[in-house]
């Protein structure tokens, strides 16, 4: 499940067991499984951590190793990144998560072992901790509201670690009209309602047990089309026209 | 703080007030401020949401609008993305967060208004909800452990929205040696300890009130250097050699 070269996550003096458990869950979402704890405040194992991390995340906790000092926890690492809420006044590179994980992947490709350090919930890493890292990682959040918790910081780094191994190209969606002429959500909903209503009257949604699926397929169709407002107008008009002359066989077989 | 064109976040039938509050916090981290609630289970306003979202995130809740149906909530939107835990069997594009937000930025640049839909915590969006969206967004998590909660899903989408407006190029870190010859964390720590100890004996860390800062600067220096194991060996040897012949003036002024 986890590549052996995935980054190690080092929680330095973590405080709340719940947060350790939540961090294990966040890690495992992106295939990180090697957790190390430096001097956890409430000792180890911690039942609150276990309660938070059910299932496979519990195994991350079971395998977590505890160290007395950060130096011991990172002894076998080739490169370590210190996550901080803001840049520190240190002569050390400050990277975005994207840049840090790009750097990390390059190191791992060369056979290196890397670690991500996270500080205690309340105060973050001490300068002495950061001094042991090769670089600082700061998630660029809204400066007026920086409120990432420990598990969220772990989640974003894990996401960036996995991100570029994931497909990023959008599937073809059809060429969409420019926004100023495109039909908006209200237009599409009105069109879908209109068609559904008229088709319902026409007996289109038959047999009854298939009706929900047919209605769903139709709504999907409208929302998937790159329609302009003019297109929507035409489709409304066409529908009205079609139903005006009803009298022949119902269009159920169309 | 928030660009007026930032995506709208639509929580469809959210259940727990705490999660609505946590979603507001996650939004604001990346400058999203327009929250819309469709038929929140416990009514609105919700004191548990308010308790979770302190400060500026409380203002996101204050300004949140409540709608009876998803259709009303998305009436003024030009494009909507439905977040789901897995792809659905629908003929609709399934995008990664990266691809979806790239698409969203292009629409917004044309003057479009976009929305991100999130389903109820337990079950996610219904097919009827997804049918109203133009595309599906799925965060590619570990298939053996997909455990994103509502606020984490909002966080990752918000992060992707903001991500490409952020600097991504690493600052220069110096050319680092290949991993097979690079000094690892243990090597660097041993070197730092050795130097610190010998310099301490030599009276380098003077005056006493400046000593912590000087030690920190030195540790930063070692961890920032692209040292090989051979380099570390040389620096250990040089240090031993330098201190062996002590007797002249202490090296404090070097």
From TrEMBL, chains A, B:
<dbReference type="Pfam" id="PF00588">
    <property type="entry name" value="SpoU_methylase"/>
</dbReference>
<dbReference type="InterPro" id="IPR001537">
    <property type="entry name" value="SpoU_MeTrfase"/>
</dbReference>
<dbReference type="GO" id="GO:0005829">
    <property type="term" value="C:cytosol"/>
</dbReference>
<dbReference type="InterPro" id="IPR004384">
    <property type="entry name" value="RNA_MeTrfase_TrmJ/LasT"/>
</dbReference>
<keyword id="KW-0808">Transferase</keyword>
<keyword id="KW-0949">S-adenosyl-L-methionine</keyword>
<feature type="domain" description="tRNA/rRNA methyltransferase SpoU type">
    <location>
        <begin position="8"/>
        <end position="158"/>
    </location>
</feature>
<dbReference type="GO" id="GO:0003723">
    <property type="term" value="F:RNA binding"/>
</dbReference>
<keyword id="KW-0489">Methyltransferase</keyword>
<dbReference type="InterPro" id="IPR029028">
    <property type="entry name" value="Alpha/beta_knot_MTases"/>
</dbReference>
<protein>
    <submittedName>
        <fullName>RNA methyltransferase</fullName>
    </submittedName>
</protein>
<comment type="similarity">
    <text>Belongs to the class IV-like SAM-binding methyltransferase superfamily. RNA methyltransferase TrmH family.</text>
</comment>
<dbReference type="GO" id="GO:0008173">
    <property type="term" value="F:RNA methyltransferase activity"/>
</dbReference>
<dbReference type="InterPro" id="IPR029026">
    <property type="entry name" value="tRNA_m1G_MTases_N"/>
</dbReference>
<dbReference type="GO" id="GO:0002128">
    <property type="term" value="P:tRNA nucleoside ribose methylation"/>
</dbReference>
């Amino acid at each position: 499940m986890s590549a052996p070269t995935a980054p190690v996550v080092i929680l330095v003096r973590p405080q709340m067991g719940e947060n350790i458990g939540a961090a294990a869950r966040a890690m495992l979402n992106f295939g990180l499984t090697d957790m190390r704890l430096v001097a956890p405040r409430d000792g180890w194992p911690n039942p609150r951590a276990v309660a938070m991390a059910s299932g496979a995340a519990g195994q991350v906790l079971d395998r977590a190793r505890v160290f007395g000092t950060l130096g011991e926890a990172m002894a076998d690492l080739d490169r370590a990144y210190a996550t901080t809420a803001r840049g520190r006044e240190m002569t050390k590179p400050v990277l975005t998560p994207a840049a840090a994980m790009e750097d990390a992947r390059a190191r791992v490709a060369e056979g290196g072992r890397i670690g991500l350090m996270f500080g205690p919930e309340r105060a973050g890493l001490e300068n002495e901790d950061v001094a042991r890292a090769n670089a600082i990682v700061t998630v660029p959040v809204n400066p007026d509201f920086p409120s990432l918790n420990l598990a969220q910081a772990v989640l974003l780094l894990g996401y960036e670690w996995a991100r570029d191994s994931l497909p990023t190209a959008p599937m073809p969606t059809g060429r969409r009209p420019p926004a100023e002429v495109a039909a908006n959500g209200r237009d599409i909903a009105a069109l879908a309602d209109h068609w559904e209503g008229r088709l319902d009257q026409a007996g289109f949604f038959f047999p009854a047990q298939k009706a929900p699926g047919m209605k769903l397929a139709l709504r999907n169709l409208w929302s998937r089309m790159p329609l302009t407002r003019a297109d929507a107008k035409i489709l409304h008009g066409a529908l009205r026209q079609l139903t005006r002359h009803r009298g022949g066989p119902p269009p159920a077989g169309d």
